[in-house]
Write a structure and sequence with these properties.
alpha/beta; six-stranded parallel sheet; five-stranded mixed beta barrel; 13 helices; binds 5'-deoxyadenosine; binds iron/sulfur cluster
């Protein structure tokens, strides 16, 4: 690369003020820069986005990939790319450590590639201590932005390219472009998205969280709850369906409080009913449901729906009413169990999954026994179990009686053993049934197999070929091996697989 490679910004006098037009304007400029850099390299520039954390981040990464593709970068499988982005998570401390560990490796790659841009975004960047540390010890990072201004990525990328390649670095740390907002009430629609899967997609229905569970950092890094307009959500899903999507996952930190702050309020159940009407859409999933806000109306809508998957993720966090109170979860053990009974009475075949935290401050052996009791009573199809992680700035971090690590680990292992035994038992119950499976990908281990999911989210491997991906096939579940099934497609008289729909 030439030493004095200069990038001059185009005519900024025509800069649109409204969004998303402003970002499309910056995409045009970025495209010009990328084409000059590619000419210098002699081949197209490549990008790689690495996602840490939840489905929200996965969807955000698709938006970043959309913009990078639009400005001329080509996606590649490895981090040995010209633009690498880490979309970070900070929900637990170990998520942060992972990022620092891998950043060191990116630094060595960058020494070999003068064109390389490194961007960091997501929840971790909303923490001042993180940004301070990056400024101090990871100065090779080109761009740092947060959760609230991700829609501005095209504009930020242009600024970062100018700062990195113009030879006139400005704005704070040399070569570093940093833009972090504390909060926003803005939702920008209609930016490009590059989906990971052709046939399924996440769809944000709301952003942020107002619940302030006492252990959780999310409300501080994702800001206050904002719902998207239902018309925008429906429009997006219709477009996705026209583009081949058959399954959507409606995303929000607490989907059950969807719509409360809209100009014309509507409930999540009402939104689901509208989504159900979309022709060509086969499956609807959603995540996450807070037990305190799960309504009878939602249960009724799920019961009568032909498209909403028979799966509910209902985070428990703890089975002890005393700990739930300290967690600020706004329900107790009895309320949770009664809710599960109500859901199962209405939809007997529903799969229930959950999140559980072990070792919250002050958790006694008796409290933990209450958690085990709920796990045994509910018999979750699967459960994500977490060691409590102290997040600075949350009320729980300041609580006395933080539990020593060995004790927490010992409880965690007991819980995990219980959860796994129950999951294996639950999984076996569908052996011998023939059920619709959405084929998602080629099997990684065995080229003769494809892998898909049942409506209840269980994984099924079956003989098949890549052309089946995105189709819903009837599959005979021959054998259950722990947490997944081996199945065979049920074919009709013509040898074609019987499709749902
Ligand atoms: N420590 C451990 N687990 C946590 N979670 C959220 N905050 C913490 C924390 N401080 C878990 C909760 C939540 C899931 C996404 O992450 O179980 O439901
Ligand atoms: Fe965190 Fe609670 Fe909000 Fe979930 S509902 S994101 S656990 S504060």
């Amino acid at each position: 690369m030439e030493k004095n490679f200069r990038l001059e910004i185009a005519d900024k006098t025509r800069l649109p003020e409204s969004e998303p037009e402003r970002q499309y304007y910056f995409m045009d400029i970025a495209r010009e820069y990328v084409s000059r850099l590619a000419a210098d390299k002699g081949s197209p520039l490549t990008f790689h986005v690495t996602t840490f954390g939840c489905q929200m981040n996965a969807r955000d990464s698709e938006k970043l990939a959309g913009i990078l593709t639009c400005i001329g970068y080509v996606e590649c499988e490895t981090e040995d790319a010209d633009f690498v982005i880490y979309n970070t998570c900070t929900v637990r401390e170990n998520a942060n450590n992972k990022v620092y560990g891998r950043l060191g490796y990116l630094g060595t790659l960058k020494k070999k590639n003068p064109r390389m841009m490194i961007g960091l975004c997501g929840c971790m960047m909303q923490e001042q201590t993180v940004v301070d540390k990056l400024k101090e010890s990871y100065r090779f990072v080109n761009l740092i932005f947060g959760t609230h201004n991700i829609y501005k990525f095209a504009e930020l990328a242009v600024t970062a390219m100018e700062n990195s390649f113009s030879g006139h670095p400005h704005k704070g740390a040399v070569g570093m472009t940093i833009d972090i907002w504390k909060d926003t009430d803005k939702i920008v629609e209609d930016l490009p998205v590059e989906r990971k899967y052709a046939f399924k997609s996440g769809v944000n229905i709301m952003f942020g969280c107002n619940n302030f569970c006492s252990y959780c950092i999310v409300p501080y890094v994702r800001g206050r709850e904002r719902s998207r307009e239902p018309a925008e959500i429906i429009r997006e899903i219709k477009r996705l369906v026209a583009d081949g999507v058959v399954e959507v996952m409606l995303l929000g930190q607490n989907v059950n409080s969807y719509g409360k702050n809209l100009k014309e309020p509507m409930t999540f159940a009402q939104l689901l009913e509208e989504v159900e009407q979309i022709e060509g859409l086969e499956r609807i999933r959603f995540m996450t449901s807070h037990p305190k806000d799960l309504s009878d109306e939602l249960i009724a809508v799920m019961k009568k729906s032909k498209k909403i998957c028979r799966h509910l993720h209902l985070p428990l966090q703890s089975g002890s009413s005393r700990i739930l109170k300290k967690m600020n979860r706004c329900y107790d053990k009895e309320h949770y169990l009664a809710l599960v009974d109500k859901i199962r009475a209405a939809i007997p075949d529903i799969a229930l999954t959950t999140d559980i935290i072990v070792g919250f401050p002050g958790e006694t052996e008796e409290d933990f026994a209450e958690t085990l009791d709920v796990v045994r009573r509910v018999e979750y199809d699967s459960a994500f179990t977490f060691l409590y992680s102290k997040r600075t700035g949350t009320p729980a971090a300041a609580m006395e009686e933080q539990i020593p690590e060995p004790e927490v680990k010992e409880r965690f292992d007991r819980l995990l053993a219980e959860v796994q035994e129950i999951s294996a038992k639950k999984a076996r119950r569908l052996t011998g049934c023939t059920l619709p499976v959405l084929i998602e990908e080629k099997n990684e281990q065995d080229a003769a197999l494809v892998t898909g999911r049942l409506d209840n989210n269980s994984v099924v491997h079956l003989p098949g070929t890549a052309d089946m991906i995105g189709q819903i096939c009837q599959v005979y579940l021959e054998e259950c091996r722990g947490f997944y099934y081996i199945g065979t497609p049920v074919t009709d008289g013509n040898g074609a697989s019987d499709k749902q729909g």
